[in-house]
Amino acid sequence: MLTIIDRYILKRYLATFAAMLLMFIPIGIIIDVSEKINFMIENKIPFLDIAIYYYHFTIYFANSLFPIFLFLSIIWFTSKLANNTEIIAILSSGISFTRFLRPYIIGATIVSIFVLIMGFYVVPVSSEGFNNFRYTYLKTGGKELMRGKNTDVYRQINDNEFLYVNSFNTASKVAFNFALEKFEKEKLVSKITASRIKWNPEDSTYTMYDYTKRTVGVLGDKIEKQPEKKTKFSFDLEDLTPVVYIAETLTLNDLIAFIDKEKARGSSTINTYMVVFYKKFSLPVSAFILTIIAVSVSAMKRRGGMGMNLTIGIAVAFGFVFFDKIFGVLAEKSTFSPFIAVWFPNLVFGLLAIFLLRNAKR
């Protein structure tokens, strides 16, 4: 049962966090518009596309900087409680510091559940819209960069089939020097080659040029050749060169299925996908850690007042984001464990939260 004090603090917790979002998101949009407005006008980007982009930008921006917004909002209103001696009055009434934390933990739980659901289903859609706009309109050669490395692509399609293309043109959706090998019990049974292969989106088929199929037989091989052949394959366009940010655009169930498929293929970029997966769960947990740190830092009246608390808060918040980004990139670009990379900032700042909480109790 929530007491009057619990409801009072919880209301301030959620209201200040919402106000922080409403204050900083428009600032982020204004800065982004000021940087891109000339480019948008010169390239005559449709207004509807711009409006949709900023809708997705709002969600993407809020999700990316959510730890900073949450942390600063708690620092802000808790410092005001301390400066008004409200915290001293609460603790003097016989309430322990641990009990004082209860409405904060309830608030962190509400925010965590909200962020978790958003990360599973809403943020992926906005991530796709945000990145599609950037790569389509704002980056030179964006559509080529969208699919990352598109030369010498060699991928395992399933347990028995392996695909290779020398290069892939994202604009024309044409791959060159195509080869598809099929094995049974580690023995080659057939191989299809083509000088180029074109994706046909209207009927989800492929057209192969200079088509050759070699079927390995016991007494001799069977060769089939055609100048042009249209057919369907079990792989799709993403198997040639997946979009570099594809993991960010998938809902939870789709992401799990995608990761399982990429693991079976021995994908070289699996760490990137695993980082995205683990962050969906680590980000909500950070709400609890940052809440405890923020309360522990700002619950005491300091000589510098609220300004000192905000300075400490900003330093800690940006330290958390720095650790999060550095270890995320480390896992994506090396063999470093994605699980450790994603959860390490929470571990470090979790220990810091315990230390600060023990000091605050004194």
UniProtKB/TrEMBL annotation:
Presence of the UniProt keyword Transferase in the record: no
Membrane topology summary: Multi-pass membrane protein
Compartments in which it is found: Cell membrane
Segments crossing the lipid bilayer: 12-31, 51-79, 100-123, 281-300, 312-330, 336-357
Organism per entry: Flavobacterium kayseriense
Name the UniProt record assigns to this protein: LptF/LptG family permease
Major subcellular site: membrane
Annotated keywords: Cell membrane, Membrane, Transmembrane, Transmembrane helix
Pfam families associated with the record: LptF_LptG (PF03739)
UniProt superkingdom: Bacteria
InterPro entries: LptG/LptF_permease
PANTHER family: PERMEASE, YJGP_YJGQ FAMILY, SLR0882 PROTEIN-RELATED
